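Re: [help] complex structure
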Amino acid sequence: AQSVTQLDSHVSVSEGTPVLLRCNYSSSYSPSLFWYVQHPNKGLQLLLKYTSAATLVKGINGFEAEFKKSETSFHLTKPSAHMSDAAEYFCVVSEGTGRRALTFGSGTRLQVQP
Amino acid sequence: GAVVSQHPSWVICKSGTSVKIECRSLDFQATTMFWYRQFPKQSLMLMATSNEGSKATYEQGVEKDKFLINHASLTLSTLTVTSAHPEDSSFYICSAPREWHEQFFGPGTRLTVL
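Output below.
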């Protein structure tokens, strides 16, 4: 069985400061891990994905995440937050390939203050 | 990039009526599609896996007679909420895997049952 825990339901940062969204996973097999973003009234957009290649994954819009097997973590970071980053972020796990159903974390709402 | 569409984007219906939601992969074929449900301020929960040419597989606790899924072609899956009730009001999202490690999500359908 697989599961994902997003450690913060709500994160608030000031514009221009770093962003850290925390995610821990549990999986019986070699997992594929993803971060998706959901803006209000819009569909889910893939930010980045880890699929057993490089452990440091770079995504779109300056986001990156590091897969740490020893800590079963896949935290999302960005050096400098923009107002447009305000959204809901989901950490997602899939056992095996990404063609299987995805298990979503509970989500983290990122608020960016001016 | 790959696009998955959903129709309608929102629907309001009376209690007891049935509602059909379409999910289409616009530029690729999908033998499998997934249906998720998202309640307000909550994460996405997998409802069922739609398989082209065969019966859908439902997650535990999801009533297959209430949520009818038909995967009629390689680009179309439909979810019909039968005899809808207010507790069925939710945001329904479909996804389709294309590449080995990526799924594409539809924009979602907001269902409100009065």
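Residues 3 and 26 of chain A are 5 Å apart (CA to CA).
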